[in-house]
Model the fold of this input.
Amino acid sequence: MDVQTYMHGVGREARAASRFIAKAGTHAKNQALTVIAQALERKAKRLLEANARDLEAARKKKLDAASIDRLTLTTTTIEAMADGLMQIAKLPDPVGEIIGLKYRPSGIQVGQMRVPLGVIGIIYESRPNVTADAAGLCLKSGNAAILRGGSEAIHSNQAIAACVHEGLKAVGLPETVVQVIETTDRNAVGELITMQDYVDVIVPRGGKSLIERLMRESRIPMIKHLHGVCHTYIDDKADFDKAIRIADNAKTQRLGTCNTMETLLVAKGIADKVLPPLCKIYLEKGIELRGDAAARKIVPGMKAATEEDWYTEYLEAILSVRVVDGLDQAIEHITTYGSQHTDAIVTEDITRARRFLAEVDSSSVMVNASTRFADGYEYGLGAEIGISTDKLHARGPVGLEGLTSLKYIVLGDGHIRQ
Amino acid sequence: MDVQTYMHGVGREARAASRFIAKAGTHAKNQALTVIAQALERKAKRLLEANARDLEAARKKKLDAASIDRLTLTTTTIEAMADGLMQIAKLPDPVGEIIGLKYRPSGIQVGQMRVPLGVIGIIYESRPNVTADAAGLCLKSGNAAILRGGSEAIHSNQAIAACVHEGLKAVGLPETVVQVIETTDRNAVGELITMQDYVDVIVPRGGKSLIERLMRESRIPMIKHLHGVCHTYIDDKADFDKAIRIADNAKTQRLGTCNTMETLLVAKGIADKVLPPLCKIYLEKGIELRGDAAARKIVPGMKAATEEDWYTEYLEAILSVRVVDGLDQAIEHITTYGSQHTDAIVTEDITRARRFLAEVDSSSVMVNASTRFADGYEYGLGAEIGISTDKLHARGPVGLEGLTSLKYIVLGDGHIRQ
Done:
């Protein structure tokens, strides 16, 4: 069977299954999640065997250490997958929620009902745990899912899929509610992102090159995360201790996450005071600093930052540092070089805080808090499918609600339009 | 200057202007709307002269009567444009609204702030009043607008644009907040829908062929309205009088609107009783009926409906009629042939009403009310830029809120991630 025929078959099955999962009750969905979690733990040995096959192939292909690390399953990561599903089971069911039901002068009652999106296509790279996470989030939000994992994780993903199907079957739902693509043919992605009749939204989870390819080629709306060039701006009216604590945490608490600070902006009025102790902390923690001329004057030995640096999401132990005149230049810098992900100001001045909140056009804007807080769990969403840097639909961390939409409902008693 | 250079210039200006309009105060925006409304009325003569030039060209090109009707401005339609802008001025400002600000266990406060989308590209056909409406809605919601009207309305649109610019200037906003494309070169649309760096969302308002072209070619997310194949299902537990009243109103109150019923579904248990009097009403009002075999048996003389009829948005005095077994077959029919726009059930049975509300996947789902209510004004949105049949972002009538998005805001007091 050619890949187009195969993918269109998957699409048709998903569309059909989406009607069953959309009307599945809360109890059935939670029960399915519980059975999947139990199956993952019970079949841990089989999962590890499947994973071992993937790892062997990966080593033969000489994948780099980081990729192999992401690919590796352990009993701990399997338990974490099962725990994640149990967490999703405990979240309130978003489907069917009715909001804002109000009477209108005509006598009709108008409100909105939260409903699933339909069929969600998820494209991801090596981490097999995404298979369980994404399946769980789609299932709970009443959506059918088509999961396209990395070819290097094919055996692991299929083993996880078997557990997912066990859970669906246990509550009488079609196994096709969650389909994991069985071919490693790269053209499968091309088909998935153009099957407008079968797929309602694409959620890509992967590196920038994957996202950029999908942005060029997808004919289906996406909820996507491009990149995170996050800033912290230390205002000259910042509290010194808060500035140090936040700027330290935003960069060094974890280096490789999308909400990690990549550029530090410091007002010239406080730069002399705050940069020396802060840079001492960074250097002690092994962070390479790249500064503009003014920053290098205050902290000699810093490398010179290039224009390219201001645009760069390092995701490693490098930080660019710029001294700015004040709030206006900080906002200007963030607007020019930022990626509309997460940006923070440290200031005690409420007027400047209000301006920063209003004028910085990013998915998360913070006052006196570390950018590292930009996360579905920290925001109380319970779980996240990703962080959206788009403006339409969902912005910032996307939880169950981001996988739903609102339709209007109208209740009347024989009402007609005059 | 070639069209690409021109359009990219427009895009750059719009992006720059979007930052000014995003932070404009409520009073300034309302003042601008008021001045525009006054200018439209004061310059009515100039508008009618510009419109006369368009109409003359249209007649030479032998445009059909309906197009010429849509193109025509009168003192009444100019007053209506001005009134519309004053209505928008009276609506609450959506920008800056903060919702759901709550403390999290970590101590941070997390909420969402409503913000403009940025730059909105609107592509429409002959009606020049869209120029004023769309400019007003974008301005009030803090967005810059690039308006691309039909080439046949170019002089009318430019005359309206002059009034819009007068209003923007009066409050010190850049005129580039609203740009009306000055070229009739058809390639301008192709540029507009692919300038991802400058345009955040495309709102097309036009016929199906325009929308289908944009769906193929646009690289920018759209808020779009494809078509409206709306259904009314009369259940066998319907109240007879409500059924007649609603089915009559949904089809005949206005024939050419997207929320007009195109297909009537009647449960076989009530068809004998309800179809004869209802069809009498339709025939008296000049509606052509096209039925399935069962409907034609009850109302002889009805034309036979073809498979194509069930998919058709007539937008004229034609109605297709089908007798169904009951609720399941009605939902099945709507799922197969509908356009996810607006569908209604007439029933006194609460369980069936609840199932219809939950299972019909349309932007508006109604119980015992006419589909004609699917409208921004009737829903209390105050004004609408269109009705979205998309699932992501905005669904159903789209008002000011649909032209905004929600970003997360985080307030701390030196909080860091543990």
About this structure: Chain A touches chain B through 71 residues (CB under 8 Å). Chain A has 15 helices and 16 strands. The mean pLDDT of chain A is 95. The CA atoms of residues 106 and 417 of chain A lie 8 Å apart.
